[in-house]
Structures are given as C-alpha cells and as structure tokens.
Amino acid sequence: MDILFLAHRAPFPPDRGDRIRSFNVLKYLAVRARIHLISFVDDDAAVTDEHRAMVQTCTLVRRSKPQLRAAAEALALRKPVSLTAFADRRVSEAVTHVLSRHPIDAMYVFSGQMAQYAPVPGPSIVMDFVDLDSAKFAAYAEDASGPMRWMMRREARLLGAYERAVSARASASLFVSAPEAALLPGSRVLENGIDTVHYDPGVAAPVQCARPLIVFTGQMDYRPNVDAVSWFAQSVLPLLPNAHFAIVGRAPTAAVRALAGAQVTVTGEVADVRGWLAAADVVVAPLHLARGVQNKVLEAMAMARPVVASHAAAEGIDHAGTIRIAAGAKEFADCVAALLHDPAGAMALGAAARQQVIKRYAWEARLASLDAMLGLCLADRAQ
User: Fold this and answer.
1) Residues 6 or more apart whose Cβ sits within 8 Å of residue 156
2) Which residues are within 8 A (CB) of 198 and not within 5 positions of it... i.e. 6 or more apart?
3) Residue 166's pLDDT band (cuts 50, 70, 90)
4) DSSP conformational letter for 326
5) Does the structure show a pLDDT above 70 at 62?
6) pTM assigned to the model
7) Distance from the CA of 334 to the CA of which of 62, 234, 290, 364 falls in 20 to 30 A?
8) What percent of the chain clears pLDDT 90, i.e. is strictly above it?
9) Smallest Cα–Cα separation from 273: which of 201, 210, 345?
C-alpha cells in the first residue's frame, strides 16, 4: 500500500509538539505501508539519512514566503492567511509528480494548511487537523483590538468555512482531543501519545540548578507559551519568593528573554529537555490558551514530575487526578507551594502520573485506529 503523507512542517526531529505527533504517526504508518512524504521544512529541521530511510520518497520544500506577502495574497484572494502562507507552486508540482508515478492508495494530510494540495477527485484522505485553528484565531480576536482584531475575526471565519469543507471531503477528520473534535461535527479523536522509554526519569541526569526549581518547557516563540510564562513570572512567582523558575525551550522572544533575572532562568534551546524535567521539583503549564492535548504535560508526567496546570492545559488529558489544576495567580502559587513543601507527596504524585501515562498514552495503542481508517495491514508492508 502507498500513502502520500503531507505535512506543514517536516516531522523531523521530533522535538516540538506538532513534530512529535507527525513523526510518530509517520513512524507507525511506515511499518505498514510505503510512505511518500512531501513537507515544508523549517530552518531548524535536522533531517538525517535515518529519517529519510523511513519513507519511500521524500520531498522537502523550504518555506520562505514573508508573512506580509501571505497577508496581501489572502486579502486579494479572499482566503485565510493560514492558507496563502503555505501556498507554494513547488509543493503542488511535487504532489502531481508523486501521484503520476506511484499508485497512491490514500493520503494522510497533517494540519489543515496542507489540504489545499489534495486533488479533487483523488485518493481518499485522512485529515489530521490536530487542533481546530479557526477556534484559536477566534480566541486571539477576543484579546486583540483595532485592525488586528478585525484580521483575527476574518481569519477565524474564513478558516472555519474552509475546515468544514475539507472535513466534508475527508474519509476521516481527526483531532487530538474530544473537546476539539466536538467543535467539528462528525470528527474523530486521535490522541497524542508519549514515548515512555525515552521519557524515563531513570535515564536522564538532572541539570544542576538553583532550588527549589519550577520548570516550564516549550517552543518559546509560540504566543500561548510566551503569554503563559510571562503571566507566571509576573503574577505567580512573586508569591513564591524562595523558588527559581526555568523557562526551557528554543527561540525565546525578546519578551521572554526580558524575564530573566535573579529568580528566572531563560535557557533557550537545550540539547535534551529531559535533564531539566528530571531536575524540576514542580513542572508548570499555566497556559491560558491551549488547543488539544499538551505534549509538555504528558512529557512531565512520563518523567514522574508533579505538574500544576491551568484548566486549558489539562483539558483533554486523562490524568486520573495525577496532576494539580489551578486557576488564578494565588491558587497557582498555593498549589506549587504545597508541592514544594511536601517532597514525599510530590514524589508520589509524580510516580502516579507516570503510571497513568504508561497505561493510557503509549503511541502504539493511540494510533491503532489508523489501521482501519487507511486499510492498513502489516502483511502489505512485508509484501
């Protein structure tokens, strides 16, 4: 069986939320079918020979269109910026090339921006939206003002109509959590998983850092992450005068870097986030805007860390009470302080969180439903 896999960002290396999901889906499918990957690639993508060996053919296109040009095209064409930003003749030509030379049985489209390349008529499509982007832009609009608010509302409206049209074409529309899937009727849930062998507290050496240590991990030029750490550093941390806060993740914005000080460390990109998680006395996920399942929370749970999360960050995770949920600066500070003051209780909570992840979120189990959706079978790959 041959599957054309389209992705808005190369699935390699699996070191951020979207790439972790796309990499593990690709890895799962590659055991069961011949995969033809066409993807945009970012400057930070480290694509190795081992990665290329996972697929039958691999076409990577560097995305270089300026955002202002994408916005101008969107206004002229009455399309969402999310689409024009990823509209590229080279990708269209690559899709045509693969379809003309290989017997493609199905397409796996990762992220809504890539559905514009699925031909009509064409092979059946499994559409992995991951999150409902139109809902994200609607939330952004509530916090914006002036022309930016108008632009965000426009994006939410046009993108919502596009998502509904794509879903109507697809044989299956997938989202990372039940709350996300409920926003688009007829959709299914394909939850994120976690590699509990990789994220194992027994194999990671803790970094040396000031204690007690509170850790946040994530891509630090992503607006929800920036907002989360800014709020925590400015509103929660002053209520925890003896604690140190480490913001761990690549590409910190100027606003994030400005948070660094006596009580805050901004690491930038690190070789291995597990060392920071292993060192953490508490991991926090204080996101006010979060779509789907947060990998950062699953990773911390797998590393047996006690986690304090916002309602938004915990939504969609079957944690069985093994993480603490807080709202508001005082409640967040109280939850963190309680864990810092009870190391034995915090350790027990973290151990329970790891057991819950092992039971509930192994990748193989989470992705098994793809077999029926795509008509996969291990025998096909063997042949």
Assistant:
1) 134, 135, 137, 138, 140, 141
2) 274
3) very high
4) -
5) yes
6) 0.77
7) 290
8) 84
9) 201
